[in-house]
Structures are given as structure tokens and as C-alpha cells.
Input
Amino acid sequence: MQYSYKKLKFSSWNVIFIFLLLASVVGMPGKGYAQLNPLGQMYFQNQYLANPAMAGLNSGVQVNFAYRQQWISMPDAPIAQSFTAQYGFASKIGVGLNVFNDKASILRRTNALGSVAYHLPLGANGQSMSFGVSAGVTDEALDPTNAEDLADISVSKFNDRGAYFDGDIGLAYVGNGLTVQASVPNVRSLRNVYQTENLINRPTFFSAISYKTKINISADVNPLGIEPKLVYRGVDGFEDLIDVGANFTLMEEKVQVLAMYHSTQNITLGLGFQYKSLGINAMHTTKSYDLKQMQTSNFEVGLQYSFWNNK
Output
């Protein structure tokens, strides 16, 4: 059995950039909105979901759609929908659009952000340092038709807040199969906790490191792609969370198999297929340990389409 691995080569500047990025992860407090189990596509299939610095990292256009149904057996269970579009220019600039809609019982939240990223080349082999920023609006409202236990004045007061401006910032180093990244969602709340006292499960930071390589098992078999990943993220009101797992690719990356373990003591499993420019994937997340008595599994499906890709 023969194995081949990529070798990492770093200049002194590479090391300095990575050190600064990792150091920034430690001191990144923030406010935002999310759930303990985010969309599974953010780990590998669509990393732009978690970090604006990943927008347009590759040339061409990439469009993604995700739909997740949580707690399937419960009435009025949370439903999340996501649409992203990103474009990478040849001039090292990437732009993106990120629209997220989340509905849980009587609460609806819609978030729409535009992103700009700059990908600074650091050397050969596609090494780059990326800086990204997103800006947009978030709108939240209660549906009074289902709010039987809420006084009308409370519903009106909540809905009268209207949409408000917010954004995200992020950094990422990519090169020789290695990706190190960090981001802060909803940066406005770094200085102003604008009417967030009634909201829970707000992310405070996101950071991750992964390494993509291939193993040649034999000359007659296509290489097996492996990308292990470690994610460290914060959610307001909870201990910091850790996600660890890997994405495996087969048949010249036409088939993807994902497995992630979360420190909330549950697992996400995924399977994806790629046909030319179209990709489709499905993911299943098991119950969290602390919510086993009231929660059922989550199911997520996603579509991806790429075009104008010069690679």
C-alpha cells in the first residue's frame, strides 16, 4: 500500500500571518444570532456561511441553497433556509450575498448581508491571506396569529423595533491544503447590544483549522481525499463549543462523505454527489445530549451550482 501526502512549506511571513490569525481567535468576543447546531454546509460545502473572508475565494460564480427541518416530530418546529451567491474576480476580489431565514414557532428572523473579500497572495501553490467584511440588515418579528399566550401590546412592541443594520468580519489563511480561519458575527453588538436581551443562542466567535490531502491507495484506484477539521466557536449563554470531524471525497471528488462530532454530544453525518457543475448533499444531525427528552433529529438538504469557473 502506497501513500502520498502534500508537504507544507511556509515562509517566515506565512508563519507570522498564521500566528496573528490564531491570536485573534482568542480575543474575539461578539454578539449575533444562531443555534447550537448551525447549518452543516458551513463546515465544508459552503464555508462562506461562517466567514465572509471565504467569499469568492475561487474564481467564478457559486450559488448555494440549504433547507433544514429541526425537531421533525414537534409541532411548529424550527425551519431554516439559506441562500448564498459568491463571485471571485481575477483581481483578487470576491463578493457575496448571504440571505438567511429562520422560523421557530411564532418567531421569524430574516438576515440579508452583502460581502466583500480581498485575497492577498502570499506565494506559490495558491497561498493567500483573506480579509472579509459583510454588511446588511436583520429583521425579526412575532406572528401574533399564533401568539395566543402573548398580550397584543407585547407583540406590537417587539414588532415595532423594525430592521436594523449589522455585519460580520473575518480572516482566513489558505495554502498547501491548510485552511486557518476566524470570524466575528454581528459586529454591531461589540459596542451595542441592540435589543438582544430576549434572544438566545447568539454566536460570539467562529474559528477553524483544516488540512486537505489525498491518499493514493493503489495505482488502479482514484486517490481518497481527506480533510480533517477542528472548529472552536462560542455561543452566548453556553460553554464554548468544539466540532471535530472530516470530509472524505471519492471518485475524483464526485462523492463526498462527511462526519462531525459536536461537544453537545451529537453527530452530523452527510452524503453528497457532484455531477459536472451541480452538487447535492443531505445531512442528518442526531439529538443533543441535554435535549434528548424533548428533541428529535435534524435533517438538512442542500444544492450547489457553479459556473464561469476558469479552473
Remarks:
- The chain has two helices and 15 strands.
- The domain at 12-307 is CATH 2.40.160.40 (Porin).
- The chain has one domain: 12-307.
